[in-house]
Amino acid sequence: MQKKVWAISEQPKILAELVGGARSLFGEGAVVTAAALGSREGAEAAAAAGAGKVYCFNLENGAAVEDLYRPLFELIKMEGADLILVGATKRGKTLAALLAAALDSGLATEAVIESVADGIAVRRLVYGGLAVSTGTFVSGIPVVTVPGRTWEVPASGEAGAAIVETDGMPGRIRVLERRARARESADLESAEVVITIGRGVKKKEDLAMFEELAELLGGVLACTRPVAEEEGYHWFPEDSYIGISGRIVKPHLYLSVGSSGQVQHLAGCRDARVLVGIDKNEDAPIFEACDYGVVGDLYQVIPELIKKIKEARAS
Question: Are residues 163 and 193 in the same domain?
Answer without folding.
Answer: no
